[in-house]
Amino acid sequence: MGRSLRQEALDAALDAVKEVGDIDNKVKAMSLGSKYRTRVRSLASTTYEVGLLSTLAFAYSSSGDGTCKAVQQAGWYEKPDRPKSDEASYALYLKHVLGYLNQQIGFPLSPSMPLEALKSLAKDQQMLLVAERLLEPFLVELKHFAEALFEPEEER
Questions:
Q1: Residue among 4, 107, 101 at smallest CA distance from 52
Q2: pLDDT for 6-45, tens place per residue?
Q3: Cα(36)–Cα(2) distance, rounded to whole angstroms?
Q4: Are 60 and 68 in contact (CB under 8 A)?
């Protein structure tokens, strides 16, 4: 018997927050977990309000291409020229969402090529609609795990 979409979403969300939690534990000064929690909460809502493509484009522009590429590399957070935590949290969110969609739909939604993934979604309305539907359980589980595991950002 195959796994349900909800089970796959739960596993993928748990893997995503585990990755962020591991980084957060290694580099406490980044406060990456709290930043990521904020991104997950706000971008999930944004997805429902303005759509997936606009939300992912916003995450991409907020992180920058260099940061998106940097977070794909092992140990990126240990380098002295590592991205700032705000940009890294957007890039990790984009990486995790595209990674989940890649797992569900396949190429061309590779998290290692976010701009190409965005272009593919923009060109194919049917793929975009399918991606939005497939993403719903993942976003719910990701939000639940992020809220449970990471402290809220301190207000300034």
A1: 101
A2: 999 999 999 999 999 999 999 988 899 999 999 999 999 9
A3: 31
A4: yes
